Amino acid sequence: MPTVFSSDRVEFIAHRDADGWIEAVAADMAGILNADIAEHGRARMLLSGGTTPAPVYQALAELDVHWDRVEVSLADERWLSPQDRDSNAWLVRESLLKRAEGAHFDPLVRIGKPLAECVYTANLQAQYNLPPSLVALGMGNDGHTCSLFPGSRDLQRALESTLPYAALDATGCPGANQWPLRITLTPHGLRACRQRLLLLRGKQKLEVLKRALDSNEVQQYPILAAIDQPGPRLRVHWAD
């Protein structure tokens, strides 16, 4: 196992193996949701896509949570139909919602609506909903989180936005693959989340996180937009 660092900017938790990581992250998320349900009667969480968190969502769905009191939405989305297998909405439905009976889901992309209208609706819902109890984030090897890609023509605008969500064109950014058009949480949106969790696997991701913390360059490592926020420190769950 590589040396685990300590930082006053993140709460870093290293897990021995993948199974322990899945179990611990799911339990952490369930605990946050249940605490907010107990306090406010409802809870809201924002989820990321990708293969890394899918087994966590599957485990979370089996835990004792009042799912009929939970609202689920997304940290970001590709400009794809929610029924597209490459969309984050599809992954969340398959890994969580089919098991978490009663949970309400708000996709970011609305079928038949233009991108600008989808962003407007996402921001309107964020305004009138409870602040998110948690956001589950990932990070790419390029240091991006949500759809805040380094080198994107829209990155600075998204970083400076005073709204929770923004549209972003990541054309030319390798991490965006064949889906350059995105809807993404902004730092403003991340700031509203009561707890920010970063789900990481592998030594390479750990090294990227270390470099980001050393650099303090949010344009190069947008993950810093999730780290340098007021409130509780970003909680990093990592396993090799």
How are the secondary structure elements laid out?
Elements: E1 10-14, H1 18-40, E2 43-47, H2 54-61, E3 70-74, E4 76-78, H3 88-97, E5 104-105, H4 115-128, E6 134-137, H5 155-160, E7 165-169, E8 181-185, H6 187-191, E9 195-201, H7 203-215, H8 224-227, E10 234-239
Parallel strand pairs: 1-10, 2-3, 2-6, 3-5, 6-9, 9-10
Antiparallel strand pairs: 4-8, 7-8
Helix pairs in contact: 1-2, 2-3
Q: How many separate helices?
A: 8
**Beta-strand fraction estimate:** 15-25%
Distance separating the two termini:
7 Å
Radius of gyration: 17 Å
Q: CATH fold name, please?
A: Rossmann fold
Helix content: 25-40%
The main pleated sheet reads as:
7 strands, parallel
Order of helices and strands: EHEHEEHEHEHEEHEHHE
CATH architecture: 3-Layer(aba) Sandwich
- Let me know the number of strands: 10
**Helix/strand structural class:** alpha/beta
State the strand order across the main sheet. 1-10-9-6-2-3-5
- Shape summary: globular
Uncertain ranges: none
| CATH C-level category | Alpha Beta
Mean pLDDT: 96
The structural domain count equals 1
Family: Belongs to the glucosamine/galactosamine-6-phosphate isomerase family. 6-phosphogluconolactonase subfamily.
Function: Hydrolysis of 6-phosphogluconolactone to 6-phosphogluconate.
Enzyme class: hydrolase
Pathway: Carbohydrate degradation; pentose phosphate pathway; D-ribulose 5-phosphate from D-glucose 6-phosphate (oxidative stage): step 2/3
